[in-house]
Specification:
The protein has 2 domains: 351 residues, Glycosyltransferase, CATH 1.50.10.20; 41 residues, no CATH class. It has 14 helices and 6 strands. It has a two-stranded antiparallel sheet with strand order 1-2. Helix 4 runs parallel beside helix 6, helix 8 packs antiparallel against helix 9 and helix 12 packs antiparallel against helix 13.
Length: 394
C-alpha cells in the first residue's frame, strides 16, 4: 500500500507542477513548424505527420514547436480523481490533502472545463485541443466536440457539483443532453440505434461512443427526470447489447477497419451500462454486464498482472489497459471481489510503466517503447485510475 501511495504522490506532484498541461499522442498538427509548410492542406501529409508523432519513441515536440496545452478530457480525468481524493479525505485520511484544499482543486479544474466548453452546438460539449486526421477523408478540426470527451466532462462536472454545490457545473452538465439528443447522428440498428462519435459524419458506429452518449442522457435524467432521456438511452443500450457476443465481447465499431476487440473500450462499455442500470433501476441488461465483466477480467489480464491490449495479443501494452481496470471494478462494485487481481495489475504497472519522475509511459512494445509523458492519455488517465484504486482499498 505504501508503494502505491508514494507512486501516486509522485504522479500528483508531477502533474501539479506541470499545471495539468502537456503533450498528447495525437497533437502533431499543433506543430508551429508544420503550420507553415505548404503540405499542411494535404490529408496524406497530415495523416503521416500525426502518425509519425504518435508512433515515434523519440519526442520531437520541443524541436518542432508543439506547445504543452490543456486537454478537456484530461482536465475531466483530473477533476474526477480529485473528487475521489476528496472522498478519501472526508473519511479521515488526509494523505492526499485536506478537504478544503481538495475542494479548491476541484473548483479550479471545473472552472477550466467550463471555460473550454464548445458553445456552437445545442448544449455544452467538449473536444480535443488539436486537429486530428483519421483516415484520408476524415478530419476533426480542433475542439470538434466528441461524445467521448463530453461524457468524461459531464461525469466530472456532476461529481464536482455534488461536492461544491456550484449550480454552474450542474447547468452545463444538464445542457449536454441537448448536444447528444440534437447534434449527434443516429444509425438505426435492430430495435434501437447507435449515436455517432461526433456531429461530423465518418465515425458513426463506434459502440463505446454510443454507450457513453446513453450514459450522459441517464446521468442528466437523474436530475431532470425527463422520460425522453431515459427512453432514448434505453434504445441505444439495447442496440449495443445486441452487438455483444455470447462470450461477452464487443468489437470497437461496425466498420470493417474497426473490428478489433480491446481492453479499455470494453471497460468503457461496462461502465456505461452499469451507470444506466444504477440510475434507471432497469435490470434488463444485468446479464450483459455480468458476462462482459467476466470476459473482460478473464481475457485482458494475465496471472502475473500483465495487462493485454487485444483479446488475442498482448502488445502494445497501452497505459489505458491497466488503468481502466481500477475504474471498471469500482463502477461495477466488484473491487473487493477482485482485489487480488487489482493489486497484481497495480504492482505490474508501477514496476513497468511509471518513470522515476512520477509520470507514466504511453505504451510498451516488444521492441522500442514510447516512454514519452502524455498528460491526457497517460498521466490524467492514471491519476483518475489510481484514485479509484486508493478509494477502493481505503
Amino acid at each position: 500500500m505504501s508503494r502505491v501511495v508514494d507512486s501516486f504522490l509522485k504522479l500528483k506532484a508531477y502533474c501539479e507542477a506541470e499545471q495539468y498541461k502537456g503533450w498528447d499522442p495525437y497533437d502533431g498538427l499543433n506543430s508551429k513548424v508544420f503550420d507553415i509548410l505548404p503540405v499542411k492542406k494535404w490529408n496524406v501529409a497530415r495523416l503521416i505527420w500525426i502518425q509519425g508523432f504518435k508512433r515515434s519513441p523519440i519526442n520531437f515536440r520541443k524541436l518542432l514547436l508543439v506547445p504543452k496545452q490543456y486537454n478537456s478530457k484530461g482536465l475531466a480525468l483530473f477533476l474526477s480523481g480529485y473528487c475521489n481524493l476528496h472522498a478519501i479525505a472526508k473519511s479521515g485520511n488526509s494523505t492526499f490533502g485536506d478537504v478544503s484544499a481538495l475542494e479548491q482543486n476541484i473548483k479550479t479544474l471545473a472552472n477550466l472545463l467550463l471555460e473550454r466548453q464548445n458553445t456552437k452546438y445545442s448544449g455544452a460539449c467538449w473536444g480535443y485541443n488539436f486537429d486530428w486526421q483519421a483516415r484520408l477523408s476524415f478530419l476533426f478540426p480542433r475542439e470538434t466536440p466528441t461524445v467521448v470527451a463530453t461524457s468524461f466532462c459531464v461525469d466530472a462536472l456532476l461529481r464536482a457539483y455534488k461536492i461544491t454545490g456550484e449550480e454552474r457545473y450542474l447547468t452545463a452538465a444538464i445542457s449536454s443532453a441537448k448536444f447528444v439528443m440534437n447534434d449527434l447522428n443516429r444509425s438505426e440498428l435492430n430495435n434501437g440505434f447507435l449515436f455517432s462519435y461526433s456531429p461530423l459524419n465518418g465515425n458513426n458506429t463506434v459502440i463505446n461512443a454510443s454507450l457513453l452518449g446513453a450514459k450522459i442522457l441517464c446521468q442528466v435524467y437523474q436530475f431532470t427526470r425527463e422520460e425522453e432521456l431515459k427512453n432514448t438511452a434505453s434504445k441505444t443500450i439495447r442496440a449495443c447489447c445486441d452487438l455483444q457476443t455470447k462470450e461477452g465481447s464487443w468489437v470497437y465499431g461496425l466498420l470493417p477497419v474497426q473490428s478489433w476487440i480491446d481492453s479499455f473500450h470494453t471497460g468503457y462499455n461496462l461502465d456505461a451500462i452499469q451507470a444506466y442500470q444504477n440510475i434507471t433501476n432497469d435490470f434488463s441488461y444485468s446479464k450483459n454486464i455480468e458476462k462482459g465483466l467476466r470476459y473482460y477480467l478473464k481475457t485482458f489480464f494475465m496471472e502475473d498482472g500483465t495487462p493485454k491490449y487485444y483479446h488475442d495479443q498482448t502488445y502494445p501494452i497501452d497505459i489505458h489497459c491497466p488503468g481502466q481496470l481500477f475504474v471498471t471494478l469500482s463502477k461495477t462494485k466488484s473491487f473487493r471481489e477482485h482485489e487480488n487481481l487489482a493489486k497484481k495489475v497495480m504492482r505490474w504497472t508501477l514496476e513497468n510503466m511509471q518513470d522515476p519522475k512520477g509520470y507514466f509511459y504511453y505504451q510498451l512494445k516488444k521492441g522500442l517503447s514510447s516512454k514519452i509523458s502524455y498528460m491526457r492519455w497517460s498521466n490524467a488517465f492514471m491519476f483518475n485510475a489510481m484514485s479509484y484504486y486508493l478509494k477502493g482499498i481505503n
